[in-house]
Amino acid sequence: MGTELSSKKEQADWLDAFKTSCVFRLSESRRMLEICREQLEEEYFWARPNPSSNSIGNLLLHLSGNLRQYLLSGLAGAPDTRDRDREFLPEPQGNPGEVWELFLSTLDQGILAIKEADADSLLSTRTVQGFELTGMGMVVHAVEHLSYHTGQIAFALKLRNDQDLGFYDGIDLNIHNE
């Protein structure tokens, strides 16, 4: 009996640590994208640097679609309604404010799906976008995918505005590990 309780506590500790870490990473990307939003001129939202690259608007639509497919559908079980090709159309797909709000709302729903996920849903394997993944794999993908495109958006904005974005203003990043 004591081993069972210890094992359940260890599982709860592991589960909480995994979910908390993933939610923190998603929230960090959100924080950085909010800073980008403040510095982004609306006329640049749908601008593509070249035909092979995506606009910031396209990237936000793409992130919304990916978060919906991996977290809301794959992890939480909602129907998969993603139209991936539409995320990359070269013409504007709506007004910038609505696209930002769609992204933020989808991210909030994805974070909630992670917080509500139990061990079974995180360890179960399902097919998402043609890949066999555990729920944990879906969460890790969503975190790294958002981080990857957050970096692209930050780079595009720094290139455009020629200024630091201030993600870590007031934080000493030279502190050594203890």
UniProtKB/TrEMBL annotation:
Q: Which InterPro entries match?
A: DinB/YfiT-like (IPR034660), DUF1572 (IPR011466)
Entries under Pfam families matching the protein: DUF1572
Q: Which domain of life is it from?
A: Bacteria
The name of this protein is DinB superfamily protein
| Source organism of the structure | Robiginitalea myxolifaciens
